[in-house]
Amino acid sequence: VTEHLLKILIIGDGNVGKSSFVHRYVNGQFNKTYKMTVGVDFSVKLLNWSEKEKVRLQLWDIAGQERFISMTRIYYKGALGCVVMFDVTSSSSFLNCRLWKQDLDNKAMLLNGDSIPCILLANKCDLTQRVVSADSINRFSKANGFVTWMETSVKENKNVEQAMRRLVQEILSV
Ligand code: GDP
């Protein structure tokens, strides 16, 4: 059995749902009372990917970011995949995805020089006051080199597992 160790980054503006996403994915829960980590930290999730492959995911969540801040190279070091998340009720969090993706592409690449597989997540799709259209997300995703994009609701547990499975699949195929 092969075990893959995959470092995955979760980036995006503050308050879009990054910590909730990791918490939901790793612990299967959505609640508002868990203790927020301060600074950079990672959570671990083990997957039985196939009969011959296990995957150990290290999910690095930048906690406590209120707005876009260029990250240090150390944070990106060794990352093999990335989630860029925004909140569909916040147009600024969507616009900032460009900066997050650029920062990533400037500082992190695979050994062969390619950019790291990155998935774009449009979170809080359970809310009715959405201001970012599927059409603009689609165009943005294609223009900026994302593997794909998905709507998620961490609150309603929609597409959380699916998004991570899609990303892992992409990482293992490169
Ligand atoms: P972070 O700063 O990006 O890590 O965001 P948090 O995980 O702290 O989430 C910010 C707020 O959004 C919290 O109050 C969460 O409960 C809430 N939240 C996260 N995901 C969702 C979602 O899918 N739907 C709704 N309605 N609220 C969410």
Tally of separate helices:
6
Terminus-to-terminus distance: 19 Å
Percentage of β-strand residues: 25-35%
Shape verdict: globular
Q: Which distinct ligands sit in these coordinates?
A: guanosine-5'-diphosphate
Quaternary state reads: single chain
Low-confidence stretches: none
SS class: alpha/beta
Strand order of the largest sheet: 2-3-1-4-5-6
Cα Rg:
15 Å
Biggest sheet: strands, sense, closure? 6 strands, mixed
Can you walk me through this structure?
- With 174 residues, this protein is α/β, with parallel strands linked by helices.
- Helices cover 31% and strands 26% of the residues.
- It contains six helices and six strands; from the N terminus they run βαββαβααβαβα.
- A six-stranded mixed sheet has the order 2-3-1-4-5-6, with helices on both faces.
- The radius of gyration is 15 Å and the shape is globular.
- The model has no long low-confidence stretch (mean pLDDT 90).
- Guanosine-5'-diphosphate binds next to helix 1.
